[in-house]
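Lecture 7 notes: from sequence to structure.
We start with the chain below.
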Amino acid sequence: MSDVSLTAGNAPLVLAPPAPWLRVLRHVLNLGWRSALILALAAWWELAPRLELTDPAFFPPLSEVLAAGWALALNGQLWQHTSASVGRAAGGFALAAVYAVPLGLAIGWYRSLGHFLNPLIELLRNTAALALLPVFILLLGIGEVSKVAMVVYACSWPLLLNTIAAVKQVDPLLIKSARTMGASARQLFLKVILPASVPTIFVGIRLASATSILVLVAAEMVGAKSGLGYLIIYAQYSFLIADMYFGIIAITLIGVVFNALLQAAERRLTAWKPGTGNT
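Predicted structure tokens for the same chain:
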């Protein structure tokens, strides 16, 4: 921010920018305000079992949960289960994005293709992914392929449907203006349709990233020997309640990190959009 100069008679008054420590303090206060509810939840989680508002055997204090997580990190189990889950979720999500986004662009752009595929899309998207879990296990086995395939199937629909909607919702005035200026079909798609569709496509991408974690955890609870879903269900059966809660926290943190990375990518790809820097 540049200095602001005011003139009083012949003597300019220069208002210097805030000191660095004031900017840091402002940032910390803003972060604390935005995190107030999370901090309150953490405090309640710690105090409720200790004040016997809840049964500590089934709802241990947060400090004990974090200590259990630290023990899992030291013995290597946390990395083993986390890396397995992240690999499956990221792999299935990436495979779904590779085919679903281009297919959605084609369906939204070519109306006849949309009319042809719409009945099948409506049928499949209303079939719950978790209801198909036994089918995936029977056809693909209990190994990695069935879990990744589940993630691909579940992620396909938010990606596909939001991409189709993104193309169809492009402002017709933009299209007419481009055609008036002599843009070819290829130029119209690359310079107008695709950039205008990116914000809505990213809505589908972020929904799909959350779906990938949700579906994968459920699949790991049913048939897996590694992954955070397996850790949670194993801890429950073994009455390692603190480990179970830490597994849930780990899944939440993975989802938050995924969402933050996607938000950063969205801001970079939509820098032209007004107000993007404030999101």
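Points to note: The beta strands are 4-8, 11-15. Confidence is low (pLDDT under 50) at residues 1-6.
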